[in-house]
Amino acid sequence: MKSTTFEGISFVIPCYNSGDYLIEAVNSLIGQPHVFPYEIVIVDDGSDDEATLSSISACGERSEVRVIRLSRSGHHAARNAGVEAARFEYVMQLDADDRLATAPELLTGGSYPDRAVEILRAQSDVAFVHTMSRMIGEFDGLTISSYPCREELVLRKHHVPTSIVYRRADAVRGGMYDPRVLKWGDWAFAVNLLAGRFRKGAHNAIVCIAGPLHEYRVHSRGRRVSNAAVAEFDMTLLVVEKNLDLFQYHFQRDDCAEDIARHVLASKPSRLDDLIRMATHDVEQALMVARQREFSLSSPFECLGIP
After folding, report:
1. 240: nearest Cα among 255, 266, 258
2. Nearest CA to 22 among 92, 99, 133, 135?
């Protein structure tokens, strides 16, 4: 694995038969008001769809784009291959059917990648930077985890978006994506990254750039990793076993991995927890999300007329 990187950001896009939206994803990256050098690394994970292959070839003609071709290896292996090939010090992953926001009114303070790189350059105690995500496609609105994250929440299984910006060296040190984790892989990746930094004695602050500057596409076509039917406890246990030292330190308990995995799942934020935390950050935003989702609070005591 190479060790020489340069100051700038590498965008990694794994792609398996996702050509419908790939060009849009790439254009959203190129369309950012970049200050730092950048590259786009498309990892073709053995696509056999002609439209996708055509889209990959078209993107590969751009000077900003490199294409890496794999035989079918799986989504996480493709992500890891992109990180390994990255030429720049900082990395951001983007799914082939998602994109970064390009609306001028959202970019008056600069692009999300540039702002994230500035933070990581200046603050060695920051593990990664994230932005809020707006859903596009079949649903329009903020994701319910759209509020600032912190290490304590990550270890309690708060959602971590794919689009975090991090140091390539931290990702490599932490073990990157674990192909065994068939679902909740972005959360597992973030825990690995935090654990790698923990073992070298670094702090794990997390910074949020509100935005929303990442756009997550909701659609019924194709097959997202997040749709896989697997046991959440089994996947959580894999992550806890790999990073038991971090979890034991954080929770101040010497329990076995199985007990800590159960504790992690028991403390996973509910939709109501997410909404309350969002309201703590921005009450108007939380009200908007509640209305979009038609959330309401019901109780078995309502029939008693208890106020």
Report:
1. 258
2. 99
pLDDT in tens, 77-133: 999 999 999 999 999 999 999 999 999 999 999 999 999 999 999 999 999 999 999
The whole-angstrom separation of Cα 138 and Cα 270 is 23
Contact indicator for 117, 196 with CB cutoff of 8 Å: no
Which CATH number does the domain housing residue 59 bear?
3.90.550.10
How crowded is the C-beta side of 24, counted as CA atoms within 13 Å? 15
User: Exposure pattern of 52-78 as b/e (b: 16+ CB <10 Å)?
Assistant: bbebbeebeeeeebbbbebeebbbbbb
Rg of the Cα trace of the chain? 20
Indicate the residue type of 100: L
The residue among 227, 253, 225, 228 whose CA lies nearest residue 240 is 253
Could you tell me which residues come within 8 angstroms of residue 256 by beta carbon, excluding any fewer than 6 positions away?
Answer: none
Distance (Å, rounded) from C-alpha 15 to C-alpha 68? 10
Q: Indicate the number of domains in the chain.
A: 1
pTM equals 0.92
Is 69 part of any domain?
yes
Residue 115 confidence (pLDDT): 98
Those residues of the chain that have pLDDT short of 50 are 1
Residue 307 lies in a domain: no
